[in-house]
Amino acid sequence: MLQLSATFDLQQDVVSSIFKKEATVGRTEEYSGIVDTRILNIERDGGVLYSWKGATGTTRIGKYDPNTRQNKLLYTFDKQVCVSSCSLNKEETLLVSKCLTLLIEIHPINNTKVLKAVDCRVRVQFIHPDTERDSVLESHLLLVAEDGYVEQLHVMLVRQEGYRVVMLNPECLAKDRVAEEFSWVQWDSQTQRLFYLTHREKAVLKCVQFYHDQNCETLFELELELPSNPFTCMRFVNLGFDHHQETQHEREEMRMLVITNKTEGSMCVCYSQPACANQEITYTIVLVHRGCSKTFSVALDGTPSPCSTDLLPLFIPIGYYVVVYLAGHFLHCINTRQQELLCHSLFLSGVDAELGVLGSDSVVLSLPESSLLDLNTGRMYTVDLNPSFLMDLLHCSHSRPDAQRLAALHCLLLYMGPNAALQLKIIDWICDNVMPFDTFDQIQEFILASLYRIIYKKCLSLDEVLPYSSVFEKKKVPEGLDLVPGVTCTTELHAEPVFKGKARRLQGYWEELQWSTEKMKYFEAVPNLRYRASQSLSDWTKLLTTLKSENKKASNYLRHIEENTKQ
What we know:
The protein is an alpha+beta fold. It contains 9 helices and 32 strands. Strand 28 (about 365) and strand 29 form a beta hairpin. The chain is elongated and about 95 Å long. It starts with a strand and ends with a helix.
């Protein structure tokens, strides 16, 4: 179902590259003992920060550039240390590593500044603002502490002798308190947003937006219906990979991820809890842009195992789909644009849900921009839907449920399109299966889905009223489309988000999201909102009856209506 394309391999792109480079200058002795190579962080530009320990007792930090496919040594510690968090500023003049949380000048190597010397988990992340300036003599750093607070440190820089960049007055770094009293935090590097979860009387998700002028502002708040005290220890998402601490903490009680899509103007809050004793796993997708939430419960196959309570699915964003993947059990491709019916989302289990390149012992993390990281192998992959697999689903007409074929057809036409070659394959499939299926008419689906895709791009505000499936014309949705064996779904209206500060004046993503939530208030009050051809059938019947009753004396007005309708 998913096709994975390798984009980074720690052994090939880093370890092998270092050996080859040092062999050319005859310095292989020090690198022959490279051990414990680990990925530390992935910056906004896609650069991979990593560390390794050498045979001479040193610890080194380097960066892999995916554009040039080159490695760069950033800093060397003269002893072996545990680097659990690391970040590099945009100009590559400052490096932060969490040993004692050191701020290090690396161009040239000079001062080190201890930011925090407390024995607790800390994650560090430089802000990478959108700016066209080649050189910026200031950097801004987020320090996220296990104690439940975030500070932004402002590091002023000065250029000396034309090329040396050093810290200006490193003993007096200005800092601001950004957030506090939270138990879960997520960094979005592409949009420079920080999401965090507070839990006093109710769980509240908040979003802080960072700007290029060093300012930041809380723009968004959303109440969530979560269990009391959902996280017993701090959870960091997209803030690097602490290989030393994660294994020491208790099992993950809950997994949560916020997914935003600039093109769609959408936001999804995804969370799940481990499987229950009855071998059932539950996960919720809050569709903020649709004003509702969908909670799915899936019965797991097989006999209960002692470790089944540790099972938590991954949430993988792919376009306007959210893929929920539980290794060895199922893969659920949830349509967040056409969310009304189960049959427009694709649920797979067994062999269909396997991801071949990932082994059974893989520790996989979901990354932004539709990517996965296998921590055990150090490999990264981009993820997308596989059109060949979807076409195969259509052709397996006797062994596949109608709901799977309908979901595959819509994915091919809407998500994959416009694609002339793919459309010809679908037309060939329709010609080979001219008779409608028991639950839907494939010709109608092809026409409606194709028209919906064209109009959706031209006028986003019509997406809630336009028909995209012939299923809505039926008085009752066929059971074969409304039910998925082993899966139950409940839909509930959700609390309205609160937009604050500049969010009400911003263009782009926040404007689209706010517009989507505002229009849902109106749509919720309108019954049978989506257009149905059957609604016009009675009027058409009355018109024909009138024309027949008046015979040749029918008014020109009615004849005019008839001709316009035919056209």
